[in-house]
Each structure stands twice: as C-alpha cells, then as structure tokens.
Amino acid sequence: MLIESLEQKTRLAMITVLATIAGSVIICCAILFIAFSKISEERSQIYILDGQIPFLAERAELESTYEIEAKTHINMFHQYFFNLPPDNEYIEYSIGKAMYLADGSALKQKKSMDEKGFFSDLVSSSAVCSIICDSINIDHETNDFMFYGRQLIKRRTSQINRSLITTGKLYSVPRSKNNPHGLMIANWRTLENKDIK
After folding, report:
1. What is the pLDDT of residue 41?
2. Which is nearest to 83 in space by CA: 101, 73, 69, 98?
3. What average pLDDT score do residues 81-90 get?
4. What is the domain extent for residue 148?
5. What whole-number distance in Å separates Cα of residue 77 and Cα of residue 168?
6. What does the CA dihedral 154, 156, 157, 159 come to, rounded to 10 degrees?
7. CA-to-CA distance for 74 and 136, rounded, in angstroms?
8. Domain check: are 161 and 122 in the same one?
9. Domains identified in the chain, total number
10. 41 and 88 belong to one structural domain
C-alpha cells in the first residue's frame, strides 16, 4: 500500500513537472512569436526626423499612387517635349529627356516635326513654345491615356494658341534616374493640334 502510494505520488510529480515544462515551452514560443512580429512591424515603419522629433512616415502601396505617378509621368513627358525656348542646345537636351519617358513612337514624331522644320522655325523666329495641361484621362483596364492641353507659341509679333490632344499607352519599366516613375509611354501620337480661334 505504501509502495502504490509512492508510485502515485511520483507519477503525479512527473505529470506536474512535464505539464510545467510544456506550459513554459508554449509561453516561451508565444512570447518569441509576438516579439518577432513586433520587430518586423517596427522594421517596416519609416521615421523622418525633424530636428530631434521623429515622425512616422507611412508607406503607400503602388496601386494607391499609380494614378498620380502616371499623370505626373505623362505631364512631365509633354513638358519636356513641348516647353521649348529658341535654343538648339536646350531643345536637344529637353527632347532627349523626353525620350527616356517614351518608346520609339516619340522619336518618330520628333523626326517628323524636325522634317517639317518645327524646331528650326522656333530658333530662327526666336519663338517660345510652351504647353498647359488641361486634363489627363487614364483607362485603368487598358492603361491607355488621353492628354488634353493647349500649346502656346509666342513670337515677337504674335502669339498662336493651339489645342493639343495626344494619346498613348503606359507600361511599367524599372525605375531609374532618368525615369523616376518607372513607366514608359508607348504608341504615342497626336490626335489634334490645331489653332484655337
């Protein structure tokens, strides 16, 4: 009877020890999981220092900024392509910057304008060409866009106002210094460029 009681007490002590060890392991694993999740959450946050005060900056997903970046990319391309002073070097520089943002369709249009004497006419008449963006519409399913704007050509004696409508398609490319939005304009063409009365 004493031996049976001793066996039961030993078994009870063993079960208690094993349960305590199992409980400790479960608690340790839970603490490690919570700690690692908190660490990864903190690492995903970015802080901006203003003097000595840190501010939490929130990351934006690409989908939430796509439309803004796409419209900025399209507008930047048109600014580079159409905002031109009567300076051959600056025209080449500006058109060169625009070529980083579009495919060969923009180069074809540049060559066509060159053949018609548009750029040489700007320089010879000391004209300043500028563009004003009215709106940009993007079809999110096909990534096709329409750019609506006005082109102003100021000469010494006159000013020409022209309506400008262009279209094209956007696709993603790796970001670079010359293409910060990571987008490329394809199949770009002018649908309308006529004088406004």
Report:
1. 81
2. 98
3. 89
4. 62-195
5. 12
6. 0
7. 8
8. yes
9. 2
10. no
pLDDT at residue 173 is higher than 80: yes
Contacts of range 118-125, beta carbons closer than 8 Å, 24 or more positions apart: 119/84, 119/88, 119/91, 122/84, 122/85, 122/86, 122/91, 122/153, 123/86, 123/87, 123/88, 123/91, 125/86, 125/155, 125/156
CA distance 117 to 196: 21
In order of 132, 147, 164, 165, the CA distances from 135 in angstroms are 9, 6, 11, 10
Query: What is the reported pLDDT for 78?
Result: 93
Q: With 80 as the cut, is the pLDDT of residue 60 above it? A: no
- State residue 64's pLDDT score: 62
Question: What pTM was computed for the model?
Answer: 0.68
Q: Cβ–Cβ contacts within 10 Å for residue 128, how many?
A: 16
